[in-house]
Amino acid sequence: MKLPGETRQIRLFLSLVLIIAGALLIWQGARLKSVPPSTQLQDGRGRLNINVATREQLLEVDIFYPQLVDSALSRRQKRGYFRKEDDLLQIYGVDNESLPVVLQYVFY
């Protein structure tokens, strides 16, 4: 027969385990956000990795103007690395029409 004190200790222990598990899941999600999908600066087609390129490197691309580059870097800093096309659409100046052109010059 379990005593009331033992039941309280078991509940407290299980609550602590759940809190730790939740914290680990949150930490892992934040960690994934901080690790770029690729650390390579250029791919085999000569495109720049938008997740690791500097402002100066992005400005060397003919179609990129300062406001677009600053928007991309701001979005990367605030929300983490680009992982899909929808992420690129969050850049000021990039829309569904211009996205295929942008993808000719950058990858993620």
UniProtKB/TrEMBL annotation:
<dbReference type="InterPro" id="IPR010994">
    <property type="entry name" value="RuvA_2-like"/>
</dbReference>
<feature type="transmembrane region" description="Helical">
    <location>
        <begin position="12"/>
        <end position="30"/>
    </location>
</feature>
<keyword id="KW-0812">Transmembrane</keyword>
<protein>
    <submittedName>
        <fullName>Helix-hairpin-helix domain-containing protein</fullName>
    </submittedName>
</protein>
<keyword id="KW-1133">Transmembrane helix</keyword>
<keyword id="KW-0472">Membrane</keyword>
